[in-house]
Amino acid sequence: MYTIIMMGEIIVHIDGSPGKPKENHGYLCVYINNECILKRIYPKPTSNQAEFLALIKALEILQQRNIREFKLFSDSELLVNGMNGKYNIQHNNIKYLKNVAQDKLKDFFDYEIIWIGRKYNRAGYKLDHLNTSGKKPGRGRFMEKFHYKGDRRPEKTDWIPLKAFSGNKVF
Fold first, then answer.
1. In angstroms, rounded to a whole number, what is the distance separating the alpha carbons of residues 27 and 39?
2. Could you read off the pLDDT of 78-123 as tens digits, one per residue?
3. Which of 15, 86, 141, 164 sits at a 20 to 30 Å CA gap from 154?
4. Which H helix or E strand runs over 111?
């Protein structure tokens, strides 16, 4: 399945991660076109909570930038099918996060939430790279060079905008 991308469209990739087992925090990553934003999540979330928190943060950023039309890509089947109404979410914490995201989506005119495979998710690749502490991820990952100093982790309260990809490659 291929998605046709029109010039000038806003493309968003999101992913959330509970982090390493001994860490007391998780991470979320939001790609808006070619800009990457990383944030630590306290306290440590579950995988699904981290995915929905990444969605909510992406919607907040889009609202701040007055962007009202976008395509959002995620590798979380629960998030995509839950937000598109195909799955009925039962867990109270996830249901609450879904309702927060749906309230934020009311401000947008035209949007699509689309499932993509893990190897095509730029945000997922970024979190894999972050969680392996600089080790190269396995074959089949979206291989690009990251241009920032020392593969350092985001600060506790900082948003770190990173220009990680060069060119206008969109999948």
1. 6
2. 999 999 999 999 999 899 999 999 999 999 989 999 999 888 888 8
3. 141
4. strand 110-115
